[in-house]
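Reopening this one. Same input as before:
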Amino acid sequence: MNKFFKIRSVLALMTFFITACMSQGLQAEPAKADTMATASYQAVLGKSLHDKDVVDFIVSNNCVSATQFQVCKEAGIAFWLDTEQIVNTVHLYLNNVDGFAAYKGELPFGLKFYDSLGAVEYKLKERGVGNAGLPDEAATPDHLHYWAIYKQVGVTIIYNAPSPDEDATIHAILVSQ
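Same output, byte for byte:
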């Protein structure tokens, strides 16, 4: 009986340690996913490609270099480098386009990915951006998306419409330094 009790105790201890180790492994995985989900463009904007924050961002988000770009599809971000290898502009993808995951971090000025053009202009007006929330410039360079350019704050909002339609939603956001 004593031998049976010892074997049972050892098995119980092994089960306890295995369960403890597995639960720690399971807890570590969501932390990584949360970090990637909230990867912030602010961590890289205006910094050198060799800056520790930028290097950490590139490594943790599995970014791929493409000439003057760093493409971080899992984070929903691409960023452009100037000739001195400084991150000049960050492109935030919001709607799972071009193989990019949707960006999950905070957007500038409290914007939300589902905001319409009317909602964006209202929010920007409330924050004193643009001419009563209207852009400084506008264009449709690709004939598919309306671009509202707010030069004073370095933000371009690209909409899912070829013209300034009140109901058009945000396609992507460019943030420049």
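So the earlier flakiness isn't reproducible anymore. For the record, Residues 1-38 have pLDDT under 50 and may be disordered.
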